[in-house]
Design a protein that fits this description.
By secondary structure, this protein is α/β, with parallel strands linked by helices. It folds into 2 domains: 162 residues, 3-Layer(aba) Sandwich (Rossmann fold), CATH 3.40.50.1000; 61 residues. Helices cover 34% and strands 17% of the residues. The strands form 3 sheets. Strands 5-4-1-6-7-8 form a 6-stranded parallel sheet. The longest helix has 17 residues. The chain starts with 21 loop residues before the first strand and ends with a strand.
Length: 234
């Protein structure tokens, strides 16, 4: 399948024409789907901490670190209570990996880029949760993973993607960020990277004006050469 003009969101960067030093992948909604687990765990947390479930808008907070979500939802609580709520939701999510699935094209992308040292995962969840979710699916482990535990400011701040590029020893401006969430697209763009948006979470894809928009990773192919990584359409 080729990429149509409808797949293009902006022309700031030519994703299909550039050569990238590395590809930086978001995890949830990009490589795997953990939506059912997330919904179960946050609804349980809302019950335990008397949070209105109407506040748990999945699109409002998708891709945002849990600590930042709780700073909003429990803004009227003491810091110690917010910290306890964070520990509790992490505990719930680590224990609940039922229904987590690998998204189309994810395994092939990691098999292509990982051995060449040309990719990293940059996720808004913590280190323990990222390990639990990768451990729950048949997915090649990425060579490097940056989590919420590794940065002071999460997405949409550019710090996570700066950190991902630094782990690989490459210039973030010569990286491609792959995201399904607006907060992640904004993070990647703010860092100076090119951005590829996926329609895996919402039919219209993420906001934030990704440079290229496709249905999922099965709609692109990553090709590793001596000079870097090229992206072709399927």
């Amino acid at each position: 399948m080729t990429t149509s003009t409808q797949d293009r969101r902006t022309a700031d960067r030519d994703v299909l024409g550039e050569v990238f030093e590395a590809v930086l992948f978001d995890m949830d909604g990009t490589l795997i789907s953990s939506t059912r687990s997330v919904e179960r765990c946050w609804l349980r947390l809302a019950e335990e901490y008397a949070m209105p479930t109407a506040d748990l808008d999945p699109f409002r907070f998708h891709g945002v670190p849990a600590r930042d979500i709780l700073d909003v939802l429990l803004a009227d609580r003491e810091p110690a209570e917010r910290a306890a709520a964070l520990a509790r939701v992490v505990e719930l999510e680590i224990a609940d990996t039922e229904g987590i699935e690998v998204l189309p094209g994810a395994a092939e992308a990691l098999r292509t880029l990982g051995p060449a040292g040309r990719c990293a995962v940059v996720t808004s969840c913590g280190t323990r949760l990222a390990a639990a979710r990768f451990g729950a699916v048949d997915l090649p482990a990425p060579p490097h993973t940056v989590t919420a535990d590794d940065v002071a400011r999460g997405k949409p701040d550019p710090e996570p993607y700066h950190a991902g590029a630094a782990r690989l020893g490459v210039d973030v401006r010569r990286c491609l960020v792959v995201e399904d969430a607006e907060s992640g697209v904004r993070s990647g763009r703010a860092a100076g990277a090119a951005t590829l948006g996926l329609r895996t979470t919402s039919p219209e894809g993420p906001g934030g004006e990704p440079d290229l928009l496709v249905a999922d990773l099965a709609h692109v192919r990553f090709v590793v050469a001596a000079d870097g990584v090229r992206v072709t359409a399927r």
